[in-house]
Design goal:
Elements: E1 2-9, E2 12-18, E3 28-32, E4 36-44, H1 58-64, E5 73-77, E6 82-84, E7 87-88, H2 99-102, H3 104-113, E8 120-124, H4 135-141, H5 143-146, E9 168-172, H6 174-180, H7 188-198, E10 204-217, E11 226-230, E12 241-247, H8 265-287, E13 295-301, H9 309-317, E14 326-332, E15 349-353, H10 360-373, E16 378-380, H11 398-402, E17 408-412, H12 431-450
Parallel strand pairs: 4-5, 5-8, 8-9, 12-13, 12-14, 14-17, 15-16
Antiparallel strand pairs: 1-2, 1-10, 3-9, 4-10, 6-7, 11-13, 15-17
């Protein structure tokens, strides 16, 4: 998706751009949303953060001030009050930045899910400590996960693009923001400094009439998910399915690099070859007359790097089997390397994420299998929390199964210096350790596929 956009204040054009063509203005850029042409007044909503136990609530401040943002443009600061790029001023665990910064949609969700949404949202991006002062970079940082400009998004069977469900969201510069709130006598720099020092919200209305006109330009492209299927041997259980998944796409090429090919050996070559090896083991068992009682689907999806698109297409639009018959998803994404927190002799680990969010039983099965096989892996739960600032539980294809309350485990060994870089090469893969992780995944899948009952759903996933 590309776009052409124009911005008017009190009827006068102040900025315009065409993404993918001549960049005529660097002061704003569309993050996502459909085509729109809306004129409305403006509300400044601080950081746009609601109360989640941090003692800070811009929405409560808006309500206390009697400010209704429905049908109006909302302006807010990016991220959260921060000491530096990694340290929050909020009382978070270890003072790490929270999901209000690491998950853009976490911040925008309240505006999208209300029955009385705003006309659109302006995010002041170039004051962010994490976005390097560039409106363009700040907007593009979330493009892959938010159907933004220059990004890919799924087309619904109706032909409607995913992003058009949402109000228009634009990333704007502080200079442009100050023009929009000039009548208040405030600047966004002063407001930010006030909030950061006091941790008290600052909200207000502006009498500026704001018009943003955005015209989407859609360019179609096509990709495929690739799957294989082994039918279960039990006539009563073969209509239940275990899905083992990975993604085979990566981030492409970069002409500015001497070696411009992003090979993605770990991300997610390690996952795709593990799925193939696990599939081979299941097929060998079936050929020997010992096939799984439940059916097993081996699913390699595309579009993960553009917002989990392949798995979303599978779960949301065209699952090959009913989701209610899918008893477990085991997702493998980046299990071939060692992250910086595990040097030397502490490398016998794999992070397990989400295993108990939907099913404690599945979590227990995985632990027991690891003990029985004797791989001596540390099944590390460091990131196994919805509150983890990295938000890894959202960041791979298990997310689309978990949101449908399907028990899942995400197997992952962490990021590293070559993450999304041209140096993510096959010669850096820890093959023996990766094989042991794959053995645990196979064992977990084997147990789920063969036990009398499916893993009990005891949680509500992401709901």
């Amino acid at each position: 998706k590309f776009d052409k956009a124009e911005l008017f204040l009190n009827g006068s054009e102040v900025a315009d751009h065409t993404f993918g063509g001549d960049q005529t203005d660097g002061s704003f850029l569309t993050m996502f949303g459909g085509s729109s042409d809306v004129t409305a007044s403006l509300v400044f909503a601080g950081y746009g953060i609601g109360n989640d136990g941090l003692g800070y609530d811009d929405f409560a401040a808006l309500e206390a001030a009697g400010i209704d943002y429905s049908g109006k443009w909302v302006m807010m600061l990016a991220d959260e009050p921060m000491k530096d790029a990694e340290t929050s001023l909020f009382p978070t665990e270890n003072n790490e930045v929270s999901a209000w910064t690491t998950s853009r949609f976490n911040k925008l969700r309240p505006f999208f899910q209300t029955e009385t949404p705003p006309a659109g949202i302006f995010v002041v991006g170039d004051l962010s400590m994490r976005q390097n002062g560039s409106v363009y970079d700040a907007a593009m940082a979330g493009a892959s996960s938010s159907a933004g400009v220059g990004s890919l998004s799924l087309e619904k069977p109706s032909g409607e693009g995913r992003g058009s469900r949402f109000p228009t969201v634009l990333n704007i510069s502080a200079d442009l923001a100050n023009k929009m709130i000039a009548s208040s006598g405030k600047t966004v720099q002063d407001v930010k400094a006030s909030i950061d020092s006091s941790l008290k919200p600052v909200v207000f209305e502006s009498d500026m009439s704001v018009r943003a006109s955005v015209a989407n330009i859609i360019v179609e492209t096509f990709s495929e998910n690739v799957l294989a299927f082994i039918e279960g041997s039990d006539p009563m259980l073969k209509d239940e399915y275990v899905v083992i998944s990975s993604h085979y796409d990566h981030v492409g090429m970069n002409d500015s690099e001497e070696d411009g090919i992003f090979n993605g050996a770990d991300d997610d070559g390690s996952g795709t070859v593990s799925v193939l090896e696990i599939a081979e083991a299941f097929q060998k068992a079936k050929n020997d007359g010992n096939g799984p009682r439940r059916s097993v689907i081996f699913l390699n999806v595309s579009g993960e790097e553009k917002g989990l698109l392949g798995s979303a297409f599978y779960t949301d639009y065209e699952p090959v089997v009913p989701l209610e018959k899918t008893v477990t998803n085991l997702n493998i994404d980046m299990i071939g390397r060692i992250d910086p927190t595990h040097p030397g002799d502490t490398d016998d680990y794999v992070y397990i994420i989400g295993s108990n969010l939907v099913s404690q039983e599945l979590h227990d099965i995985n632990i027991r299998v690891n003990e029985i096989i004797g791989t001596d892996l540390d099944l590390n739960e460091r990131f196994n929390s919805k509150d983890d600032p990295n938000q890894f539980y959202r960041r791979s294809d298990h997310w689309n199964f978990g949101k449908n309350n399907i028990p899942f485990i995400f197997f992952f060994t962490g990021t590293h210096d070559d993450y999304h870089g041209v140096d993510d090469e096959p010669d850096k893969i820890e093959y023996e350790r990766m094989a042991r992780i794959a053995q645990v995944i196979f064992g977990t899948a084997w147990q789920v596929a063969n036990q009398d009952t499916k893993p009990e759903v005891t949680g509500q996933g992401f709901n």
